[in-house]
Amino acid sequence: MKYDKFQYDRIFEILKHKIESGLMPKGTMLPSFADLCKEYKVSNKTIRRVVAMLSDAGLIETKERQLSVVIFDQTDPANDHADNLKAPNVPIMTDILKTAEILYYPFICYGISLCNKSDWDIPEKIVRQLNPKLPNLFWKNSKLIWRFFIARCENELSLHIVDALGFLGVEYRENSFYSRVAYQQTLIDFIEKSRKETPTSDAIKDFLAYIHFITISRDDFRCYVPADSPFRIGVQGLDQWMKTAEERYSSVYLDILGLIAIGYYQPGDRLPSHAQMQKQYGVSVNTTTQAVQCLQKWGVVEATRGKGIFVSTNIQALNDIPLDPRLIASHIRRYFECLELLSLTVEGVACHAAAHVSDEQIHELIQRLDEAKIYGSLYQPAPIVLLEFLTEHIPYETLQSVYAIILKNYRIGRKIPKLINRANASRKLEIHRKCVEAANALIGGDRSAFAKQAAEMFTYTNQLIIEECKRLGYWKTVKDIYDGSQLWK
């Protein structure tokens, strides 16, 4: 596969979680290289790199011409690093917990709702392997159950964010054997009922509320973390999203193509210099050079040493660009994941953000939405205006960082060829109307209505974008290339 380079880390994490959770206990033989290549749809070279990483991590043992064997024993006291754990920084921990409450809850609910009868095999196996007599290991592996439900959504961006928050490294401590037994039995009962009949939304909420009541809300429930945990130093690396070199420079030239398509750059306009593009896109000079060379080759821009880079007067060249659909698919997948993350979480985020805005800031939002309407015939910027407003006023630092990533990925839409066009003017006006309606609710002081209407608008926009991508054939390309079930199966 063309994008093997960014696959190792993902496959390594999948296998690592299987081993550390006990799904692949000590003594288990890994599948052959050929079977792993087939399962993950990658090259032999990629699988060899993953196996080497697992070996270096002390998880497996490799021998020439033999299958690799799991050597990690989760019950071995040597794998318990409790002596190196410290108390979390309370303000930072509180910020992360509020972020997790707003982000995790809707994804866990959605993941549970997606599970069919056979999907429950994995969480059930993890739950039944929990040993209440080993509290540290019990709580460590119990976290993998909730990670499974998030992974079941098949949204790699959300899983990346979840892991970056550092919950897998948190060690819970309490002194009640019977509470662990009750916790395990509650999970088993819920899984058995869910196998027979998909739980209702209310049943899921009641289940999660009870789990919270018998764990984190207890007075004797304490947590300790490694010295470098996000719970002590804050969340790091949220924006370090895996990309190949080709994805990096294609992201630059696709954005420039999108800005030309919406009329931001006109024929003859001078584009930013290489130095300005490096700062704007956060890339190296090699990346911007490759991007401009591609645009030159297609006749979209003209570059003259000492003068600059200019948009070609031959705009027809935009319709004749030979873009690799697989490369476009990698950007569209990230765009879809961003849209889903936004749709599932924005109501809660909007409710919290609304509590921290002034009347003056609300009127500024209305003014920006009015200004955005003039571009509505080709490109509807109102959702971005609203998303920028929400991101700016989120009261939690970690959540604000997450939404900054969502905002950045939301702009991928203008990079997707033919997605921006002059068709469906009525739908674009409807999107703008919904944004204004939400803002007006905020002027009236109804935060709940504002949050609900903002969520409805983003859900509506998400549906329209998916519908258009299906019409353009992008949806099928993404589904053919990317198998999201690898995140949880």
**Bulk shape:** globular
- The computed structural class is mainly alpha
Helix content: 55-70%
Number of domains: 4
Widest β-sheet, arrangement of strands? 1-2
Could you state the order of secondary-structure elements as H and E? Answer: HHHEEHHHHEHHEHHHHEEHHHHHHH
- Give the rounded overall mean pLDDT: 85
Please give the number of β-strands: 6
Report the biggest beta sheet as strand number plus sense, adding barrel if it closes. 2 strands, antiparallel
Stretches with pLDDT under 50, minimum 5 residues: 1-5
The gyration radius over C-alpha positions equals 25 Å
CATH topology of the largest domain: Four Helix Bundle (Hemerythrin (Met), subunit A)
| Cα distance spanning the termini | 21 Å
Assigned CATH class of the largest domain:
Mainly Alpha
- Tally of helical runs: 20
Keywords: DNA-binding, Transcription, Transcription regulation
Pfam family, one: GntR
GO molecular function: DNA binding; DNA-binding transcription factor activity
Protein name: GntR family transcriptional regulator
